[in-house]
Write a structure and sequence with these properties.
Number of helices: 13
Number of strands: 12
Order of helices and strands: EEHEEHHHHEHEHEEHEHHHEEHEH
Structural class: mainly alpha
Strand content: 5-15%
Shape: globular
Radius of gyration: 24 Å
Helix content: 40-55%
Distance between the termini: 43 Å
Length: about 400
């Protein structure tokens, strides 16, 4: 990840996680926390509505946060046009998330596990910002907090269960080669393959804690598959220690988040905003994935496309055989159908959408930081990437006649 800058402060990707040894990054993270707080509190009313579609809305808070931490390419547009396009995409993300909920995607185990993991991270972040970041020595304060929280949580890892899990994970991860000296997190497909191939391991006790809590292999695998816990290649001499380190980090986050909950940070307004933001992003992406998996191209459709575009498949007056281009045509048709589906879905939103044009015409967003990686959860983005949904809407967002008052 390249270095990203925003005015006078910077954030660089780090390898060290806040849950354990914190030296070196805490001062920069303190600036990051305060910078985010400034973004969420500066200027106009935080709850001012910028756009709405039925019961969905985009507030000033959401716009400022996502606009400052999202890579979004605008080609030759004015500030007003940029603001409108970005707000339209924010509203579209919520619209698609609403559709995903109606299809039951919010009940899928993967999504629920992702949101539970994010909730733990957000609780810790809120507690860090409220109790640690403003201390004169954040490193020392964090060390003291961790020692207090983990005082009665000593871990006892089952050697037999760990060895079996290590061997099983190695078998799964080895199916996708690693780049030399690289690390990566467990993918959803790999986690599913592990569960199916090594079903007998799932219920085995992996970790017992001094306070009486217990994790099975399945409990840890779930956290490993959705958390920012990268592993090196199973062929690396560091694989075993990295796996044990991931167990330690996952446990520390579990109990730190519980401590944050007891301190009342579950009621934090910014925490709720982050959860809603990530929920909409994950559900909209899950909807797109589901729809793409369901889209097919029939033999007749492929043949009709081939015949109607025969000049494109003719080289030096010689036709390219249909069989040799069938797969590429099928892929093209699926892409076209996917785009048409998104256009129809988002045009329905645009038909009932309202935009606070007076504010959007003059709103000056904070400088963009582009992609920002959290130092305390390496690999996790500070904000989800906003897809350019506005591009899928047939009519330009500013061409429709909008009411001059709020609905």
């Amino acid at each position: 990840m390249s270095e990203e800058k925003n005015s006078g402060w910077e954030v660089r990707q780090g390898r060290k996680c806040a849950l354990g040894r914190f030296g070196g990054w805490s001062k920069r993270f303190t600036v990051l926390v305060l910078g985010v707080a400034a973004l969420l509190s500066c200027g106009r009313d935080r709850s001012e509505k910028l756009a709405a579609a039925n019961d969905l809305k985009v507030t000033m808070d959401e716009f400022r946060f996502r606009r400052s931490f999202s890579p979004y390419v605008f080609r030759g547009k004015t500030i007003a046009e940029k603001n409108l396009e970005f707000t339209c995409s924010l509203l579209a993300e919520k619209w698609m998330a609403q559709e995903a909920r109606m299809r039951g995607l919010a009940e899928h185990a993967r999504y629920r596990a992702q949101m539970e993991q994010l909730h733990r991270e957000f609780l810790f972040e809120a507690m860090y910002a409220g109790d640690i970041a403003t201390r004169s020595d954040p490193d020392r304060a964090m060390d003291e907090l961790l020692r207090t929280v983990m005082a009665d949580k000593t871990m006892h890892i089952s050697n037999a269960a760990f060895a079996a899990m290590e061997q099983a994970l190695a078998a799964v991860l080895d199916q996708k080669p690693f780049i030399k000296d690289s690390t990566r997190t467990l993918t959803e497909q790999e986690a599913n393959r592990f569960r199916k191939t090594f079903a007998d391991l799932q219920s085995r006790s992996l970790v017992r804690f001094a306070n009486g809590d217990e994790w099975t292999v399945a409990d840890f695998l779930l956290r490993l598959s959705v958390g920012p816990y990268p592993l090196p290649s199973p062929q690396s001499s560091n694989f075993r220690s990295a796996l044990k380190h991931s167990i330690k980090k996952a446990a520390e986050l579990e109990y730190l988040s519980r401590a944050a909950h007891r301190r009342g940070y579950s009621r934090d307004a910014d925490l709720r905003m982050q959860e809603e933001m990530w929920s909409a992003a994950l559900l909209s992406q899950a909807l797109i994935q589901q729809q793409n998996e369901q889209i097919t191209a029939s033999e007749d459709e492929i043949k009709r496309h081939y015949r109607s575009h025969i000049s494109e498949y003719t080289i030096k007056k010689k036709r390219v055989p249909l069989d040799s281009v069938k797969s590429s045509i099928a892929s093209l048709l699926r892409q076209q159908k996917a785009r048409q589906w998104q256009q129809q879905l988002l045009q329905a939103m645009q038909n009932v959408a309202w935009y606070n044009q007076d504010v959007l015409d003059t709103l000056q967003p904070a400088p963009s930081v582009d992609l920002v990686v959290k130092r305390h959860f390496p690999g996790r983005m500070l904000a989800p990437v906003l897809l350019p949904f506005a591009e899928f809407i047939h009519a330009a967002a500013d061409s429709a006649q909008k009411p001059a008052f709020k609905p």
